[in-house]
Design a protein that fits this description.
It is built from eight helices and 35 strands. It is of the alpha+beta class. The protein has a four-stranded antiparallel β-sheet with strand order 4-35-34-33, with no helix packed on it. Strands 5-6-7-8 form a four-stranded antiparallel β-sheet, with no helix packed on it. A four-stranded antiparallel β-sheet has the order 9-10-11-12, with no helix packed on it. Strand 31 and strand 32 form a beta hairpin.
Amino acid sequence: MDEMNKNMEPGTTDSNQSEKETESQVEVKIWKKPDTGRKKRYVYEVVAEEPEEKSGEAVRQNGDSGSGPETVPHQENGPETVPHQENGPETVPRQESGSVVMPENRNKEGRFSGKRSERQQAKRTGTGRSDSGSKNKKKENLLEKDNISKKARQEFWKQQVVEGNPDHRSFMGRLHQGLRRYGRRIVAIVLVVSLVFGVSWYYNRNRKFHSYDVEWQVSASDNGYSEYRTFNDVILHYSQDGVSCINQNGEVMWNQTFNMDVPGIAVAGGYAVIYDIKGTSLYICDRNGCTGSAETKKNILKADISENGVTAVILDDKNSNYINYFRKDGSRIDLEIKTLISGDGYPLDIAISPDGTQLITSYVYEEGGNMRNQVVFRNFEVGKNNADRVVGGFRQYEDTLVPEVIFFDNQNSAAITEKSIDFYSTRNAMSPELAKTQEMDSRIKTVFYSDEYVGVILEGDEKAEKQEETGAEAETQKVEATADEGSAQEETKQAVQTEYTMLVFDKTGSQTFKQTIDFEYSFADFSGDGIVVYNNSECAVYNMTGVCKYQAQLDVNIDGVMRFSENSLVIRGNGALQKLTLK
């Protein structure tokens, strides 16, 4: 045994010792290499390095040793193996000259891709031949190093991504790591913000105002017939002498003079038309001033305007009536529809669609000695081949009138009768249909509408009022001992008599809310983003969920109320305009 150890050459070692040296010599590193794909990604690879000096020295020692593996002559059948050692034959690379050389410095790369990585490692660490013995063990050791390098890779990823080198982070990686690190904070912030918005929304929705401050006051002429109307974010003041535009600071932006006996107005979008009822003149204007005017040959019964400025006018004649159209500059459109009173009937109201292509007309006519009502739809685009452009008509109104027709948008409209609202759909332009009917419990006293909603206020139930009055009289007889109790009963009786029901529906016929009005009102309308209801001394303001935001007796003789925002009103009365800030 000693002789064998002595006879061993300096370059030869035991196979186990060779494996340990090889394992210690192989240094596993991780480096980052940019991928050549379309997106900027990085591929992490394993680099197995062997010192070049030691491997060269081992080659020289093996080449000088007489007892080392002998050089085998070149053969065509493939590589020769050295004499059998403990770990089996060791394959050696073969060159063209047939001499045996050791592998050169292996500065090779391998990707973490499973079997492919193993094949690459095997290919780069060997010669492509079936290895055995120490080579196989070297390969196994390299795989063990590979396992260690996975942990190193995880540590590297943590240092590069988590600890903040943004150049090495992909979007998903940043998102994933950000959620892991800040997920709870983000969830907490979202919950807090949602809670704040929810509380703010609920507070603003249900907050009520109890007093006000006068922001400004300007004089308002009351000579003759004079009215005010909200027009987007300004006020139109029209009278027999002309029309003027007033901004929310009370300043006159422009004015237009004319002479009308009874001026009427229609507003849609950014346009308004002022026309002389039973007269022949009309003026079309927008926020910046008058855009055009026109004179008609016959008297005007009713006019309506679309959102693009097209105006439809019903003209009156003795035995017939005409429908004429005008552009926003006042020029007449070459289209006239004539209807006979003995045939179609007498027009009560018209409504033009926002795009100006459709028209609804309510006619009252006589049939069998009774008055009947019909609603006629016309379309000036798809109904060109029909007589008078008619695409549909409804005559289910036998013993009731339709005094009001409206267009919400190009596909939804409504006809209001004395005790119902019929909602129509013109999705099929050639075949309008009745989509929904809302029947009322009592007669409709007031109708008001916008481009999204329609509201009605119903008359009080007379039968219920009489029952309450009878009960009040009986109760009064029982408690006639004191005058105070009698006056209290009188107040209760009066409160019952002045209670009305307000209903609001959207353009599809669904009820939005129902509210009770507990005072004698004279006017109601949509204004701003809410509803105003008032009489000469009292005013009530509602939002679109039915909450009464403000109700009080004012110190002015109210002629009109206009609402621009949640807490601002413009009151007309006592010859002045006042802007009130509610608080």
